[in-house]
Design goal:
Order of helices and strands: EHEEEEEEEEEEEE
Strand order of the largest sheet: 4-7-6-5
Largest sheet: 4 strands, antiparallel
Strand content: 15-25%
Number of strands: 13
Radius of gyration: 17 Å
Shape: globular
Distance between the termini: 22 Å
Helix content: under 10%
Number of domains: 2
Length: 184
């Protein structure tokens, strides 16, 4: 999810998806701003929608064995997950076969000179902050496994450490967040 007033026009938390086939050199986009992600008609949420009132969301992204497309499922507050849409396999080069990088985390953005908004629930990482839990790699047969802990398999990338932090990744989860307030 993301809080980005310059992109969404408000300071609400939004469900956000992105894709690229070349590190955003000439392909990819966020939410439904270009062709790529294909939403399903009966989806419980659409990329870009506000997450107002949803405190815990569940996300599953996996490559379907039968067609090779990458599917996104969504659920909230402990409910079952349902399809949101998919990224067609034709969008990708190496991802048509397998993923070589997977990212989880938060993102914020603000207009130049404006203070950055909070990330997660605005708390520093800890038991009361935002979390990613039950993180798993899912193989082509649908079997999940917990990624190895930092630094062997998963690493952090925090760009504004005065405003945001992330905990150590362990047992398939991590805490993240911060109050924001950065202007650089």
């Amino acid at each position: 999810w993301a809080i980005q007033p310059s992109f969404y026009g408000d300071s609400k938390t939004h469900f956000s998806v992105r894709w690229t086939a070349d590190g955003y050199k000439s392909t990819g986009c966020t939410d439904l701003k270009c062709d790529g992600f294909v939403p399903v008609n009966y989806a419980p949420i659409t990329p870009g929608d506000s997450l107002e009132g949803k405190s815990k969301i569940s996300i599953k992204i996996f490559k379907k064995k039968d067609d090779g497309d990458w599917w996104l499922y969504f659920g909230h507050d402990g409910g079952s997950i349902t399809p949101v849409g998919f990224w067609p396999k034709k969008l990708f080069n190496s991802l048509a076969d397998h993923a070589n990088r997977i990212s989880w985390g938060g993102y914020t953005g603000s207009n130049a000179g404006d203070p950055s908004p909070p990330m997660g629930n605005g708390q520093w990482p800890g038991k009361n902050s935002a979390t990613f839990e039950d993180i798993q790699f899912v193989d082509i047969d649908g079997h999940g496994s917990v990624p190895p802990p930092w630094p062997a398999g998963v690493y952090s990338d925090v760009t504004h450490k005065k405003c945001y932090q992330v905990s150590v990744f362990t047992n398939g989860m991590f805490y993240y967040g911060g109050p924001g307030g950065c202007t650089d």
